[in-house]
Amino acid sequence: TSSLRINNVSKIYNGSITALSEVNLDIPEGEFVSFVGPSGCGKSTIFKIIAGLSEPTSGRVEMINASNQETMIDRNDVGFVFQHATLLPWKSVLDNVTLPLELKGVSKHERHERGKEVLEMVGLAGYEKALPRQLSGGMQMRVSIARSLIAKPKLLLMDEPFGALDEMTRQNLHYELLKIWEKTGMTVLFITHNVFESVFLSTKIAVMSTRPGRITNVFDVPEYERDE
Ligand code: ADP
Ligand code: ADP
């Protein structure tokens, strides 16, 4: 199988702030990896670099295929979910979710078919015509997740997606997310401050430290911890 390789990545902002220092990690396809660590240790920075939204100062992030060849990450294969549901308030749930396909010029019929499919995956079938403000915070997060899934990413990056939600809502979303992960087989990278959340959800936990930002430990999570 292939893997994602973070290869000696450093990031220095403005020539002075070392956000990441020689970070290395291999992530086999299909893993669910949580990144935990104090504020400012570079979690968001490494995600932006993986997503291609930011350039590393040195080092690189690449895919290693089954024949051990390096390839670039195709940005079309990457989905991103942010802490706050960044939905367009004047657009319906369905139009929000299908926006990435609209930008790619996919036909309306196909957009709607696929939009209904992903809304069903996140438990929001029937809410196509609703506006974001009519939904609870947890439901808005589900819409954001649906939108991140619409182009069938192989890699999903989630930057503290459930941090702003109450405990019950968060737990429900944990189960939904694990179902989606199992169904799609995609690789999920997940930032959290919540160690319980990381243990419950992930196959591996990457612990980061600050000054300079580094991965100091990587743990495998035993399966029974995850399945409750
Ligand atoms: P985390 O997500 O773990 O809180 P970040 O990746 O946001 O950490 O930030 C890592 C370090 O880099 C922090 O010191 C932060 O202030 C700094 N930083 C992040 N983004 C920028 C930026 N665009 N310009 C300058 N410094 C930044
Ligand atoms: P996070 O939620 O990851 O901690 P922050 O609130 O630290 O993010 O930062 C929000 C935004 O500001 C991010 O896009 C980050 O890259 C940028 N940023 C963070 N620190 C700095 C900084 N010292 N200078 C400039 N931009 C920064």
Automatic annotation (TrEMBL):
SMART domains: AAA. Keywords: ATP-binding, Nucleotide-binding, Translocase, Transport. It holds the Pfam family ABC_tran. The keyword rRNA-binding does not apply. Coiled coil: none annotated. SUPFAM superfamilies: P-loop containing nucleoside triphosphate hydrolases (SSF52540). GO terms for molecular function: ATP binding; ATP hydrolysis activity. This is Nitrate ABC transporter ATPase. It comes from the Bacteria. Residues 4-228 form the ABC transporter domain. Gene3D superfamilies: P-loop containing nucleotide triphosphate hydrolases.
